[in-house]
Amino acid sequence: MRTVKLLLTTFMLGILTNSCYTEVIIEDEYIEDPIVNINGVLQSYDLWYIDINETTGNGEVPFLQRAFTISFTGKTIYANNNLVGIGKTGNGFGMQVGHFNTVNESLQINHDVDGYWNLEVFVVDNNTIELYDANSRTSYFLEGYQRNNFDYDMIFYDNLQYLLQEYDVWEKIATSEEGALNDFDSENYLQFYNDGNKSIFNSSVDPSGMHFNDILWDYRGEYSLFDVYNDETLKTLTLDYEFMGNDYFELYVINDSTIELYHSSSGTVYKFRGKGFITYLKSGKSQVDKKRTKTELGTMKVARKRKI
């Protein structure tokens, strides 16, 4: 009997195993991706900050390369192409630069200067989108903000090299009483611009109050901006004079037209004000003069010397 039971058990297991193998059907489950309302996404934030250092690809979309922020309101596109006036120009949105339409996941743009563009829109997370240009295989990553919580200090310090170049000249308007005498005391004007891949400055000892077109430049050299390790709100500036050594400063942004340079070796504070504001897309300046590029500043491990 024991042998019969064992054989019967083996026989039943074989049937069950065979039955399971032949009768159980597993189907792939089809999950349909939700449809994203691209128009709603674009208009969910007042400002989209273009983080130019996150851009991927070797091409460019000119109006995105030029702008700090872009906004989609109604069917109109606004952009802040200047740091000067940001937060005030166009009620914070900037200037009108074109119109747009959305079709499925496609963003169709008719730009006043750069013409027609068709971009794909991808939602990265709850406040980040990717705009992809298939023709150049280039992606731009935009971070969404409302106007009342936008970090204007961040945008100035992250793009300080562009602020310095948004004026024809910077005129010295004040020198602190504290500080030792040094050669920079006599320099009353600074000018910053790019010459190819070089960051160039000019300096003049002409008297205060001159029109910027009449200034004669006495000194020339290359300038460098640096981040400071463990101090996000401080930048340093080095003026490397041709044949004359260099000057080193801590640089402070007071507002969009005023900066202060703290000359750490002498302890002197110099205040400069911008003259000859360059309004991109409205001035006679060539549009190729102002395009943002990926920029990685060097980092200094120095301690802030100015006591505030």
Derived structural class = mainly beta
Number of strands: 17
SS summary, helix count: 5
Low-confidence stretches: 1-26
| Measured distance between first and last alpha carbons | 99 Å
Radius of gyration: 30 Å
Mean pLDDT: 86
Strand order of the largest sheet: 1-2-3-4-5-6-7-8
Order of helices and strands, N to C?
A: HHEHEEEEEEEHHEEEEEEEEE
Beta-strand percentage? Answer: 35-45%
Question: Biggest β-sheet, characterized?
Answer: 8 strands, antiparallel, barrel
The dominant shape is elongated
DSSP helix fraction: 10-25%
In short:
With 308 residues, the protein is mainly beta.
Describe the structure.
With 308 residues, the protein is mainly β. 14% of the residues lie in helices and 42% in strands. It has five helices and 17 strands. It has helices at 2-23, 38-42, 62-66, 152-158, 160-164; strands at residues 47-50, 69-73, 76-80, 95-103, 106-111, 115-125, 128-133, 138-145, 167-175, 189-195, 198-204, 219-228, 231-241, 245-255, 258-263, 268-277, 298-300. It has an eight-stranded antiparallel beta barrel with strand order 1-2-3-4-5-6-7-8. Strands 9-10-11-12-13-14-15-16 form an eight-stranded antiparallel β-barrel. Strand 12 and strand 13 (231-241) form a beta hairpin. The longest helix is centred in the first third of the chain and has 22 residues, at 2-23.
